[in-house]
Amino acid sequence: MPNHVTSHIKLKGGRLDLTSTPHRWSSRIKGDEWLIQRVVDLGHPRPVTGDDRIDMILMGAEHVRMSTNVYRYTKFRRVKTSKGTKFWCIAFASDDTLFERLPTSAPPEERYKALKEALQKTGPPRWYQAA
């Protein structure tokens, strides 16, 4: 994934203007360990190497996306906060349409409600910078 630099986010006519910087409208994952534990709970052994860890993070993300029926219209991506904290997310939309091939606007809540419940989130997904 390319590393994008964000200059600013601004409101334009009451709407978020994200045309100058790539962002993802995403649900924040609870953390790498949460994804790994999902895979361990499915019967896989805990990771031993760094490669095992990455494989299990990817398997955990695939499992949560499939079990909440969002797999076919989401992407698993690395994003960051405005302070630079990087984390994994499940992206539903992006303003980088050529690279991501995701919609540019947020979906209705019924499309992400099961994922929100699985992640134990109370609010809707948010826009985050690409990492």
Question: What is the secondary structure topology, with strand pairs?
Answer:
Elements: E1 10-12, E2 15-17, E3 23-28, H1 32-41, H2 50-67, E4 75-80, E5 86-94, H3 97-100, H4 109-118, E6 126-130
Antiparallel strand pairs: 1-2, 3-5, 3-6, 4-5, 4-6
Helix pairs in contact: 1-2
* Binned strand content: 15-25%
From N to C, what is the helix and strand string?
Answer: EEEHHEEHHE
The number of distinct helices, counting runs of at least 4 residues, comes to 4
Number of strands: 6
Helix share bin: 25-40%
Alpha carbon gap, first and last residue: 8 Å
Shape: globular
Radius of gyration: 15 Å
Textual characterization of the structure:
Helices cover 32% and strands 24% of the residues. It contains 4 helices and 6 strands. A 4-stranded antiparallel β-barrel has the order 3-5-4-6. The protein is globular and about 40 Å long.
Keywords:
about 130 residues, alpha+beta, four-stranded antiparallel beta barrel, 4 helices, about 30% helix, about 25% strand, globular
Short description:
The protein has helices at 32-41, 50-67, 97-100, 109-118, and strands at 10-12, 15-17, 23-28, 75-80, 86-94, 126-130. The protein is of the alpha+beta class and 131 residues long. Helix 1 (32-41) packs across helix 2.
